[in-house]
Amino acid sequence: MSQRLAKVPKEGATQQSKIRLVLFPLPLQGHITPMFHLATLLHSKGFSITITQTKYKSLDPTLFPHFTFHLLDDGLPDNATFDPNNHTMILDTLNTNCSEPFRNCLTQILSKEPIACLITDPMWSFTKSVASSLSLPRIVLRCASMSTFYVYHSLPFLREKGYYPLQETKSDEPVPELPPLKVKDLPPEAKHNLLVDIITEMENSQGIICNTFEELEDFYITRVHQVLPIPIFAVGPIHKNSPSFQASIWTQDHTSISWLDTQAPKSVLYVSFGSMVQVSKADFVEIACGLANSKQPFLWVVRHGSIEGSDEIDPLPLPEGYLDTIGQRGNIVNWAPQQEVLAHPAVGGFWTHCGWNSIMESISEGVPMLCLPFFADQNINTRHISDHWRIGMELDKGVKRGEIERAIRKLMVEEEGETMRNRITALKEKATLSVMEGGSSYKSLENLTNYLLSF
Ligand code: UDX
After folding, report:
1. Is 289 inside any structural domain?
2. Do 179 and 65 share a domain, yes or no?
3. DSSP string over 364-413
4. Domain coverage including residue 122
5. Among protein residues, the one whose CA lies closest to atom 28 of ligand 1
6. How far is CA 416 from CA 287, 369, 370, 403, in A?
7. Which sequence ranges are marked TM in the entry (predicted)?
8. Does the Cβ of 338 fall within 6 Å of ligand 1?
9. How far is the CA of 16 from the centre of ligand 1 (A)?
10. Which residue in 50, 247, 330, 369 is deepest, having the highest Cβ count within 10 Å?
């Protein structure tokens, strides 16, 4: 392996350019973003990149002229929509429909040229069997944290210990086996089958690439390696490692940046609950009032379809006179260039749902967080932010305007927020160093490059 390492040119390698990798993202924003960053990174290392994408939520190939694209017929009508509260249904349908098209696509590529390795999302539950039937090596890209993966892997043990069925009365009790988690952070039983599928896909892969860095999650990377003795490549923050580009399902509103340019340094609270969360109309109004009453400037992303019972053309259910009251102090957009927003000097805090990409992007820019988790890994992520790394705080007393106002002021102008800002600034330095020459993620990427060359 080390001999091969010596042969690898640092950037724009030529040796690898004939070596084709096929990457297969899941068509959800939180999975597309890191997969496209990884593709860009591996392309910069000289590999030829093919992206297979579903028709559903496919990105425009002309934005990525350096990649080859294959569109899979996912069997869905062109205007397919899913109940945003039923993510399992989207995954089940796509997993049922895409297995054969994916196999056919790979067979077609293989009839023309060899494929060195597949890189797939572990939430595709059929790529293991397709890869082995075609004798192709397969690595998975874990888009969420390693701590959540370790929790998922520990579910049988937690069941043995009597944590399941989860008991409401014990929800605030700690889980001493997995500090700093509380019982309420554990995944609900209804999701266990899905989580077992993810684990199986990862267990049977030849490696795991993850969007994290050793200085942040060394403890869990080591634990996962103990239970899954396969290579792990922590190459995050993955977006800091690759040139910036637009891998967005929705059009980003760049007026967010010109508005931020008019604001004082570290004064703005950026608010976004990611690409899947929906809030009730009642909570939306509480959020709007909490933001206004906090008197802090804010940039608020309200994605189309993110309010229950509303569709794209409905006006936002804001209280009467709201926009006049906030004036220039607030800016509401449909979708923002989030990585640029978080890097802007005017941004001083991030109210987030705690999706893993958002967390990595916030850490990368040293922006402390106010956490409002909704589902999936977001509860576990929140616990680490508030109780482990202490770079943010949980909005844990419900979505009520008074609580929101108090929490925002604490984060943005009080000493507690300043302490979190200092901690996350120190973590930002570690993240920055990790992707620089000699850093942990930089070395992991070199190891990954060499590993891919060994197939
Ligand atoms: C989903 C799950 O909600 C999350 O728990 C899991 O970790 C990943 O998949 P999502 O809701 O998409 O994540 O959130 P997140 O992981 O934070 O990813 C959102 C991505 O969209 C980020 O890369 C962010 O930069 C981008 N984004 C978000 C924008 O570009 N503009 C916006 O306005 C909001």
Report:
1. yes
2. yes
3. HHT--EEE---STTHHHHHHIIIIIS-SEEE--S-S-HHHHHHHHHHHHH
4. 10-236+435-453
5. 274
6. 22, 12, 12, 16
7. none
8. yes
9. 31
10. 369
CATH code of the domain covering residue 400: 3.40.50.2000
46 — alpha (psi -120 to 50), left (phi > 0) or beta?
Answer: left
Question: Do 355 and 331 sit in the same domain of this protein?
Answer: yes
Structural domain includes residue 243: no
Check if the beta carbon of residue 277 is closer than 8 Å to that of residue 306. Answer: yes
Question: How big is the chain, counted in residues?
Answer: 455
pLDDT tens-digit readout, 350-389: 999 999 999 999 999 999 999 999 999 999 999 999 999 9
Same domain membership, residue 439 and residue 324: no
Shared-domain flag, residues 227 and 372: no
- Pair 34, 177 in one domain: yes
Distance between Cα 4 and ligand 1 center (Å): 36
Same domain, 206 and 302: no
Please count the other Cβ atoms lying within 10 Å of the Cβ belonging to residue 202: 21
Q: Whole-number mean pLDDT of the chain?
A: 92
- Residues 6 or more apart whose Cβ sits within 8 Å of residue 393: 369, 370, 371, 386, 407, 410, 411, 416, 420
> Ligand 1, residues 194, 275, 300: which to mutate, most atoms within 8 A of Cβ?
275
Distances (CA, A) of 364 to 62, 239, 391: 29, 9, 12
The predicted model scores a pTM of 0.94
Report the separation in Å between the CA atom of 248 and the middle of ligand 1, taken as the mean of its atom positions. Answer: 10
| Cα distance between residue 345 and residue 360, in whole Å | 17
Domain count, the chain: 2
Look at residues 364, 363, 367 and name the one whose alpha carbon lies nearest to residue 351: 367
Q: Is 377 in the pocket of ligand 1 (CB under 6 A)?
A: yes
Statement: residue 308 has pLDDT above 50: yes
Q: Is 417 in the pocket of ligand 1 (CB under 6 A)?
A: no
Whether residues 53 and 132 fall in one domain:
yes
pLDDT category at 244 given cuts 50, 70, 90 is low
Point out the ligand 1 atom lying closest to the alpha carbon of residue 356. Answer: 7
- Is residue 246, in this structure, part of any structural domain at all? no
Same domain, 271 and 394: yes
Q: What are phi and psi of 119, to 5 degrees?
A: -125, 115
User: Pocket of ligand 1, candidates 338, 339, 353, 365: which has the most ligand atoms within 8 Å of its Cβ, to mutate?
Assistant: 338
